[in-house]
Amino acid sequence: MIQAVFLVDAMSLKPYRLRLLLTVVLLNLLVILLAATSAFYGYRQYQERADVSTRNLARLLESDLINAIRQVDVSLLALRDIHRIRYREHVRNPAIMTAHMEMIRARLPDVDAIRMTDVRGVLMAGTGVEPETRIDLSDRPHFIHLRESGKDELVFAPPQISRVNNKWVVVLARMMPDPEGNFDGMVFAAIPITALVRGGARLELGAHGLIALRDQQLGLIARYPPGEDPAGYIGQQAVAPQMQEMIAQGLEEGSYYSQGGPNYDAHRVTFRKLEGLPLYVTVGLSPLDYLAPWRQEVAKLAAIALLFLLASAGAAHLQYYSWRLREKDSEALVCQEALYHELVEDLPMLVVRYQPDTRIIFANRAYGDLVGVPVQQLPGRKRLEFIPEESEQQALLARIAALTPEHPGAVHEEHRVLAKDGKVRWTQWTDRAYFDAQGRLSYLQSVGEDITEQKRNRDVRAARMRLMEFSINHSMDELLVATLDEVCTLTESPIGFYHYLEADQHTVTLQAWSTRTARDYCKAEGEGRHYDLDAAGVWADAIRQRQPVIHNDYAALANKQGLPAGHAQLIREMVVPVFRKGLIVAILGVGNKASHYTEDDVQTVALLADLAWDFADAKRLETQLVEMATTDFLTGLNNRRQFMTLLNRELERLRRLEAHRVAVLMLDLDNFKRVNDTYGHAAGDEVLQQFARLMRSELRKVDTVGRLGGEEFAILLLDADLEAAEQFAERLRRKVAEMSIVHAGQVISIRVSIGISLLQPEDASGDAALIRADAALYEAKRQGRNRVCVWRP
Known about the structure:
single chain; about 800 residues
């Protein structure tokens, strides 16, 4: 309430009424001006936030698309390596290749199908391919390009209708070589166009937001929300002139405001070119969505201005009659105060008036409901009693001390309030001080609102964005620790843990602790330890009850059981389960918050616990795909591609370091075809696996072994000359000769021939050393097998 005291002497009624009216008009003009200024700067702020949001969303979508395409490419490379190793078997029975494809496709949720053609372009294996149905893809541009270029590259084909299931898809394809490296068909993944922008559903685009994916010529590939008939919009090149101009200038990222048209609304748009791909992604936010909070704030400002107008008019009316009736001055003031109380009593905003020492004079019903004290009992109590943090109490006193008659206001100050039932709520306040004629502070009035929900949502969104960016370049374990650190910060908890629950729903795998927990509190056994649910304490009630649990008085629990040695002492705890497909897959817990845990904390933890699981699951899939692309599936050794990469890496080191020596061994199992013909391919696989285990047991950690194909293997011995390599090879040959392999009750003996060469700095590539070692291996075969030969110039 603004109270004005007008001292009047003997003057006519008309001049006084005029001065009173001018005062009210000027005050209301000032309020309107302040409201308009706040609305104007709020509008600019929301426009700037929209620009930042579209840029962040575009970068996030770019990262998602690139990661998805890389996962698909790694899968295609893995399939190509499998096909090279089992080429003859796949040619005789394409169904085996189909099984490999389906196994990998099951790990790629956005891929509709993985298929392979022969050299003529006819589908021979993959999702939905029927042996009796001949489907020819030789006229597809991506097939023609791969066949004619012969390059080992990933080809991105434009949208097309699948000839297998009539779906609109885009295609990622790679050449499928024969054993000699010649073009022998292609392997490709078909991705539904809707899957390309499916991530839009989890982004906060608003009801009118748009996402579009365009090709190099700006033809539309996919959009979100998707249309009913893709044929109606695929290939459309209707883009804003601003975007065309920026792309013509060579920009790969830009933002602009699209004014809209007869068929679409205005949008604030950001586009980005995907790194290394002929694609553009655009994200548009509609003013109908991102300016909605601003419109609500404007409505609030208008309501406050209107309320002020009514209050000032009423106060002026009372003041006028007070002047008319001097003998009733005190009664008029009481009536004016009563009117003020009536105006603010039922306001949803918090209103409190207090003395400089924070002793409350008046508070409205909303404030009383917040702190859980009847309004009649609030006068006389200090406002500091309801601020739990001492630092925030001192901040309030400092703000009061800083107020002067020239600067009597302080706006948008946030602090916590101790609410009813012991809960803590976040509030935001605007303070106003009132001074007497001598400039001494008489009292203060603060108007505020409960912003707990807004602050939690804002903090959770910020944490999610930080974790999304963190996940790009960090491991799964680092990501879990970062998630726990964010959760502990949001819930003000010094202890945090994240554990997995196995599929049996009974075994808990201890996985990760927050940084502060591991450093300051918990010294118990750590990551990877298995814990039986029956032996777990009350922290595992979240699993048993299949719902979040809160223990705010841990010491009073009867069945809490003991804690492992080194575990932190618990005061209170909260544990939230993570569900996937009806099963609990993980739990996230926090502990020792200074105040009680609440349902608000449960919601905060649940949001980030789910996000942590999604990140961890994606990281596990990424690790599996990388392993499939670099490891021989039968023996677990490095495959040919990975071995050649490591060999060339050692060649580079050899050129840099004069004292560095590397020996290259080529190994071939003698008469291995006879093993397959006599005992069957299963026995042959067992022989290869046993031989691989023997080599691993004989090698040092610095050495490398790989399977090049069939029964052919290669070894890199670091810091070994020809003499040392020959001694190692002879020892390995003898152990192979002494090895007996029992399969299906039959004893199988094998022999190995070994060729040795040294890697030379002048070698053009690692292949040169392999060729020399292979020549020595051929000499060992020529001399009767089961021997070691060294290549010498």
